[in-house]
Design brief:
Two copies of one chain form a homodimer. Chain A has a single domain (about 5-84), classed as Mth169, Chain: A (2-Layer Sandwich). Chain A is about 30% helix and about 45% strand. The first copy, chain A, has helices at about 20-35, 55-65; strands at about 5-15, 40-50, 70-84. Chain A has a three-stranded antiparallel sheet with strand order 2-1-3. The interface of A and B includes residues 30 and 46 of A. β2 (about 40-50) of chain A pairs antiparallel with β2 (about 40-50) of chain B, so a sheet runs across the interface. Chains A, B: One of its GO terms (molecular function) is phosphoribosylformylglycinamidine synthase activity.
């Protein structure tokens, strides 16, 4: 019996240390203007939940398409398998 | 001695079940066009790492500014404290 399984991955893409995060800078400024003085720092990241046949394609699309190797770092986590 | 502590929070904002994720739809279509046939589904979310004096302001900025209650759900997690 052939079990066809789809894996679930969680890809998180963040700005490298030292690279300015424009959205975070803007948000932090606005929070202070709006009176939220207790917000000290903000950093953002993007997460993609991807269902795929195998990890190799997820790694390739992450390094080639989703992440910009010059400014981003990323992690790829298998979160839990599910079969059809 | 007064210890002034800043807390670290992780806010994740996702589309509600049944609400279309435009970015994810576009990405998935492009992956298939580019030949990545093993990618079955994509969903996106936005993560904010926030350093703040307390949780209340983080909850308020999340529900009032960062998330749109009509289309988003969100989670707020204290990740680890640090003091100055």
């Amino acid at each position: 019996m052939f079990v066809y399984s789809i894996m679930k991955f969680r890809v998180e893409i963040r700005y490298k240390e030292g690279v300015e995060d424009p959205e975070a800078v803007t948000i932090l400024k606005n929070f202070n203007i709006l009176g939220y003085k207790g917000i000290r720092d903000v950093r953002t990241s993007k997460v993609y939940y991807i269902d795929a046949d195998d990890r190799d394609e997820v790694s390739e699309i992450t390094s080639k398409i989703l992440a910009n190797p010059v400014i981003h770092t990323y992690t790829i986590e298998a979160i839990e398998g599910s079969s059809h």
